[in-house]
What we know:
- The structure holds two protein chains of two kinds.
- Chain A is of the alpha/beta class.
- Chain A is built from nine helices and 28 strands.
- Helices cover 21% and strands 28% of the residues of chain A.
- In chain A, strands 1, 4, 5, 6, 8, 9, 10, 11 and 12 form a nine-stranded mixed beta sheet that branches.
- The mean pLDDT of chain A is 94.
- Chain B is α/β, with parallel strands linked by helices.
- In chain B, strand 9 (165-169) and strand 10 (175-180) form a beta hairpin.
- Chain A binds chain B through residues 31-34, 71, 254-255, 257, 260, 263-264, 270-272, 274, 276, 278-296, 298, 307-309, and chain B through 34-36, 74-75, 258, 260, 266-267, 272-275, 277, 280-299, 301, 306, 310-311, 313.
- Strand 14 of chain A pairs antiparallel with strand 16 of chain B, so a sheet runs across the interface.
Amino acid sequence: MKAIGIILAGGNNSRMQELSNKRAIAAMPIGGSYRSIDFALSNMSNSHIQTVAVLTQYSARSLNEHLSSSKWWNFGRKQGGLFVFNPTVTVDNSWWYRGTADAMYQNINFLKKRHEPYVIITSGDCVYKMDYNEVLDYHIEKKADITVVCKDMPAGVDVSRFGVVRMNEDSKIIEFEEKPMVSRSNTISTGIYIVRRRQLIEMLERSAAEDRWDFVTDILIRYKNMKQIYGYKMKEYWSNIATVESYYQTNMDFLNPDVRKYFFRDDPKICSKVDDLPPAKYNVGSDVHNSLIASGCIINSKVENSVLFKKVFVGKNCVIKNSIILNDVYIGDNTHIENCIVESRDTLKANTYYCGDNGIKIVLENNQRYML
Amino acid sequence: MIKKEMIAMLLAGGQGSRLGVLTAKVAKPAVAFGGKYRIIDFPLSNCINSGIDTVGVLTQYQPLRLNSHIGIGIPWDLDRNNGGVTILPPYEKSNNSEWYTGTANAIFQNMNYMESYNPEYVLILSGDHIYKMDYEVMLDFHKENHADVTIATMPVPIEEASRFGIVIADDDKRIHEFEEKPEHPRSNLASMGIYIFSWKVLKEALYAMKDQSGCDFGKHIIPYCHENGKRLFAYEYNGYWKDVGTLGSYWEANMELIDLIPEFNLYEEYWKIYTKSDIIEPQYVSAESVIEKSIIGEGSEIYGDVHNSVIGPGVTVGKGAVIRDSIIMRGTQIGDGTTVDKAIIAENCQIGSGAVLGVGEEAPNKLNAGIYSFGLVTIGEDSTVPDGVTIGRNTAISGVTVKEDYPDGVLESGEVIIKAGDSV
Lengths: 372, 424
């Protein structure tokens, strides 16, 4: 028990368009059966980090519902546990979280009360698997003040939505730019950090005194030349859910057998809240190809290159192609859905047509289900 | 003092020997059912859905799978500070230690457990049946009639009545007579093996009959209560109830779940069936697969064709394989190009490539024609079947089999391979 964890899950991103109307990104459904935050939570739990704080702010209802019990991720112990911190009004503070550093600063007592020497900070909107202890060993070996987990993106990938870093031969970070228009490197920060707990408390208090509230611009970038900030390169799968395209692509990645093996079959496994749904049911007329189907689905027609989340009902004579259907969607007969993301709990009337012609279409329908 | 109005005692110690190799290593209540469940999930879920939060599970035969499945009862919300689920195996006593010798004897040996909850009523259940039932409604019936014992019954076709324990009740549902498997039944109300006892009556009867060898509810306790003038009532249940005691009825009950709108509907919202799910990821269906009229559990990877079958979680069906009219349980792998027709394949089996299971004419099974019939191929858990073999009908396989076990690569209909170390 060398470290405690902090998961930043308060964020919203307008580039998620209507998908973020309902919930924080950390609560977005991923890979058929999971929520985005399951990955960070499972990584913490699988790395034997027993004390984890989740900082929420934007539209947290769905997220809180998901976290209603911590037992699914093996928390809920006498030592440690899962703590969810929403912004609250106190005697000396009436602000929302004004940034990532402020979110941690407002809960600084959580940091002060613990005895573990290190803090692992990650965000709830990334899909990845990681043993944080390996990064921690690296952090200690480098005698770093802060370690930033980085990843080399393939050449040609637009990195302008990430923090971009450059390291020297010793892996020390010499340049850090937040969301640069033009970047000179394709190494990005994954938003996973390790900091000594006392160091973090000191930096947070100092930034707060200077009215600075963002962890990246006001701490990482500002302290870059003063503190020993090292980069740790991860080579495995990592994906950040921040735009509709990246959300769509991340889900489609699970159709790749290597990605499935990595997340579904190889130890340790990703945990999630258990929904107690019956097995998926394929009736006469079902014609499913290259798709992921979650439990509780009932399928009566054609589904191709798609991801169906839990409890989706597909009526007769439909065609579903290259689409993502979120939880508990009812699709009436003779419906055509192509290149779409269908929002959870939607009810699609029979004989309708949805097709994303240039890019991905987000389908939001609030028809009465039992009036069909 | 702790006080529970009604506690449940769930009898889960039986082998279920008529399921053959399926119960060679597990007790019948732990046998998989309906893709992701185990048989005991049904009575356990009924308990919590009926508001009963104190359940003693009596185990005896091969309890490992049951113990690990039930754990501390988390999946059924039976992890309680006060009550919850307790596993009750037979234990050594200062004198007169014995196994559970009969259903009532097993309950009698757990007198201390029941006393500790100070109940008004005790519900006796068995872990052998597939059904959804609100025990609270049955309890209301018991109270309304000021009954001492209430027996759950269901109407069965009169021609089948001679296979059951039959009760004869008057218009007020008071029971006047019993007949155990009568040749000429005078009623069609069959006992379902579910009883509610008023605690004092049960306690008195168990003590009175404590020296009866193999003390059984149907044979001894119920007749004892009847003879002593207790008020016995028949509660009539009219929903789906299935005894999955034989391979044929087990196979049929699974297949009924595939119907477009199954009589036993697992997709209803208000009476959920809970189970321990350690496999939660979605299932994958490949580009070449054809799946029709089937139910498939979480995390399975289907590269072949599946028709009219019940597939458990974590199963892999290889490329070009064809599964038809079969039950395949958790974690089993079916090799590429293998054909499976009307088979029951238990958990964690490895079936090789290019094999053919279930071909040819039926022939009576040579080991036990009573158990292995219905034209089924039955394969016990953790078994291996080598590549390219052909297996006939009414056959049974258990253990790691190799090519040499199959003369000319064929296991004729009616044959059995049980490898050393596996007893059936």
